[in-house]
Amino acid sequence: MSLPVFLHPAVTGSAAGETVEVTGDEARHAVVVRRIRVGEQVALTDGAGTTAVCTVVTAERGLLAVEVESVSTAPAELPRVVVVQAIPKGDRGELAVEMLTEVGVDVIVPWAASRCVSVWREDRRPRALEKWRATARESAKQARRAWFPEVSDMVTTEEVTALLRDASVPVVLHEAASGPLADLPVPGRGEIVIVVGPEGGISDEELEQFAAVGAEPVRLGSSVLRTSTAGVAATAALLARTRWR
Description:
With 245 residues, the protein is an alpha/beta fold. It has six helices and eleven strands. The chain starts with a strand and ends in a 6-residue tail after the last helix.
């Protein structure tokens, strides 16, 4: 069974034999919630590729001290996957972030599409973003990821268009598209950008903007997926032809 993972930036540059102290919320989660005890092994990661396997020497409320046994650094996986997620209503945004993180997405971009039912008002935006980012952190730990995904600031349609323009593989999911996702060529390197529309669908004007930079819509299959699951399905289908082989 894989070791429980905790986030700690100080792991960067650490070496075998050193003692590292984890404090605050992460330590309380380890000791109080996960009930980690002295003598057990855990993994600490900086979320940017470095992971240390450690043995616990102190486990108290608010303090987890560990001795580093070994340190490894994993390169970022390719191709890089960016999912532009139109903001769903209710808690489906956090559900989408959770699943996208588990499947291996590198960047999650909240998009204020014209047909979004849910709108992040300016006064609510920081709190909404922090919920997405906290979900990504916790999901990355659960998935034992060495590289944690970035959750960017909310973007406009013009900014999404720029992401698609620069992508190695631009993907716009749309239920009425004639071409299937399976027909897209997928290189082993570069960047895949997947755009997932809102519950009300991507507008004609948005589709025209995307098509103008070479991002023609594609469909996943015969069934229509919810906005919170479509990105996960598309990412899995593409990674099955690249990273997961």
